[in-house]
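Tokens for glucuronosyltransferase. Go.
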Amino acid sequence: MNSVQEAASKGVPVIPIPLFADQYRNAKMLEYRKTALALNAKDLTVEKLTKAINEIIEDDRYHRNAKKLAAMIAAKPMSAEERVVRYTEFAAQFGPDLNLDITIVDLGCGPGNSTKLLFDRWPNASITGVDSSADMITKAKEHHPMLKFEQGDAGAWLPQNSVDLIFANALFQWIPNHLKVFQNLIKNALKPNGVLAIQMPDNFQEPTHVLMREVAQDKRWYSKLQNQARTELPNVNTYYNTLLEDNLSSHVDIWHTIYYHPLDGPSAIVEWLKGTGLRPFLDPLDEDGQREFIQLYTEKLTKAYEPCVDGKVLLRYPRIFIVAQKSDQHNK
């Protein structure tokens, strides 16, 4: 008995789920990523269902984990509802997405940490990390010699051949005209049905960033810092409309997530932000100026962030996520 039969004999269900409207579009997105299979009613034939099942069971991980799930079910009887939940969790975790054979670009890759995560998730994909900093590219190549990295300006970069996925983490908040860059990437860098996946901190109005700008107004360094603050991100409607303009994208998902990071105190917040939000304010200053800026900034943070019962402060950190799938009407 193979693992699929074993799991089925223990009650692991095969569940056909009717999908409508947004559910179907989301399922098609998962299908593109090879994490699910969406079939039209006319496609529900023995041949196509057999092919779909064979694609799944060819993954060795499925066999290993199906046996684990079967043993778990045998050890602890579950209701039908519990079995559905357990099975869908299992399917989401151990689907065949690791076998995805596509081209991926990590735009603004820095030292390659996110590129390595993409490789861990999709080891069969062709993945390239791109960053404008020669120093970052050197570090990325040193830390991850098995991966490909190249230097390029994110605001103007285009690949030689169109790709399936462009991933950009905490990059585009630094690029003022990034709405136009998004359109250019979708039009000229992605394959039809390719995906642009973006995350940006949306913390312009958070105390951390309001206080940065407030400290920058100090007369000691105002002349050097008056134009250093980045601009606030556009509103969600602007992103949505821009990405759907002229049928550029067939589907756009946008959402916010707010993270709360427990840190040891205001000094820990400063250390957190030194490599990101504080850089435009610190880089133009000499060592004495940087020290004085940080001292004044830390004093203001101390008043803004009340300690919790364990002595830590909670750093509120909103992020915006955007996933746009290119329409197949826009062939390169």
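The longest strand covers residues 249-263.
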